[in-house]
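Researcher: Batch entry, complex prediction.
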Amino acid sequence: MTGTFEQTTPKYRNPFDSPWRWQLKDLVLVVVLGVVFGFVYWALVQASNGLAIVMGPAGDLAHHFLHGGWLLVAPLAVAITRKAGSGILAEMLAAAIEFVFLGSPAGPTLLITGLLQGLGSELPFAIGRYKRFGISRYAVSGFLGAFLIFWFSAIRSGWFGQDILLLRLVIHCSSGIILGGILAYFLVRAVQATGVVDNYAIGRYQ
Amino acid sequence: MTPLTIQHPSTMVEPGALTRWNPSIKLMSLFVLSVSLLFVWEPVRPAVLWAVLLIVALTVGKVPPKWLVMAHIPFIAFGFGLFLVNVLTRSEDGVWIGAALAGRTLAIGVASILFLTSTAPVELMRSLNQNLKLPASITFAVLAGYQLLLGLPREWQTIRAAQLMRTGGVERSRNGKPKLTFKEAGRLVFTVLIVTLRRSERIATSLESRGFGLKPRTVYRPIRLRVTDVTLGVAVSALSIAYCWPWM
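Model: Structure tokens for the complex:
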């Protein structure tokens, strides 16, 4: 009965499907994600410091193993809201929360870190015009996020003269692909399955 | 279970002269200082700066000495890690560069403490909105998110209690308390995330239903930008750039 009715009406297109049209709830979601992950990242810093102490002399490498964890929020924000700039905004807010509200030893340079991480993570999704969300795209996103930030950290912490630069890069990018890419993919799937984000762009594409 | 709370450092320190400095200008000055310190590759200048900042923190900043010592623990741990790895991985100048990096961490750390103890989050967001013209939608969403963050520890405890009710705390630690296993922690974090996502949609709806986003906006108690604020900001920025100039 309803089938014939649907065939005759023209297909309705939601104007908010465009990546450039932000709704207030998209913005609030990105901000809230940034805030929550700012706290998670801060906890991750403590975990990374703990791991560094356990690993002893190789402790500085501990940071690289966990690094992908700091890339999680960008793919999550992009995948749910599908808005241009959401990944960068979420990462920068997470960095700002980490520094302004929770007091991180890295200080305000964290904002630059957040910008680079967000940019790297969002780029693959932007190339897919915020319409393609396959698992390999997430992996590339994690890789790019880790790769971009690596060089900034290398300049900041003076890794260039060290003998283990290549080892660092390899661990860093693998962690980015696994924790910041593949894990993000499964996290998005799990969040979507709960139904809390059905009213966002991700819910309209099911 | 004692309730967990998050307290912002600014609530624990008596307001002083730094509190009256405009938050946006203060943040920008701190940013300039931290970025210019990235160009210093020897330990003497960061160490001197650290000592100066300590004196400022104890006198002008009115930071209690005990609190200052406590806040140093993560910075020292972080700085020591940086120092050690450079000593081990650099054959010639490891000690020198390692000390420089550790000194930089300490100096930026104390500067950040000064900023945190003198700036209330609400004032910072209002100032960013009014003085730097950041969109109100972002700053007020951040404040709403910050309120949410303050409630997170409580949320965590509630969900953890529910989790224990169901499982009965199967694994116990040495002192007999239920142990938080890795799997349980994962579920806990995920549940907290879902609860906050649900709440974020509710926040957006209630903001919109109260007319948030309509124009023009009026401001209650505007934050003024005084000449002294800008002068102090320019002075601090210029001084830190001059101090960290590479070929001086």
